[in-house]
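Worked example 4.2. Below are the chains of a multi-component assembly; read each line carefully before continuing.
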Amino acid sequence: MRGTAEQLRKRHPGMWLLIRLDDPETESGELLAANEDPAALDKLLAASSDRSRPLYLTYSVSDKEPLPAFAL
Amino acid sequence: MDRRATTGSVVLLRNVRVGTVNTELRLDAVLDTGATYCVVPVAVASALGFHEGNRLGRVPLNVVGGRVQMDLYSFEYLRAGTAQAYRVSFCAGDLGPMSRFMLLGLSFVEHFTTTLDFDRRRVLFRAREDR
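Applying the procedure described above to all two chains together yields the following structure tokens:
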């Protein structure tokens, strides 16, 4: 699946997405994986040796379930 | 000028670039002006080639509930929007098992005069006059 990061986030609410961007200056690319558990993307992140195009790890905030508050 | 999303509960910056001399990754960051260092998920740090063998040291950090020791490293560069800083120190650690956000702490923010504009939902990073 392809699209801008914003488009891909909208299609996968509440999920972590790993996107391979088309080039360093764009926000569009190919969705490599989407999962509610970010640990599922860790191995893919580690195994991806092609760094000629940037990888973007992002989260789609769901309207139904907003981010929890932080106390850091 | 950078336009970045804010949610009701956190200031979330999208598509932050973290890089070494060899490689780069992008991720989302929670702005934390109370954090001395940036904090990057262990999986991201590992994918960029950071590990115990090339850490700069271990630092004690006061966190909610006590004190922890974390590995300290340095990015060649970190870029949020159009704001870029070089040789930014960071610790490797997770905000929780279900999070891969990084914390954008003072080791980056201190490079800029920073304005949080909640009306326009953006963060402004401007070059400091003394640098």
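Take a moment to check your reading of the output against the notes. The interface with chain B takes residues 5, 16, 21, 24, 27, 37-39, 41-42, 45-46, 48, 51, 54-59, 61, 66-72 of chain A (CB under 8 Å). The mean pLDDT of chain A is 89.
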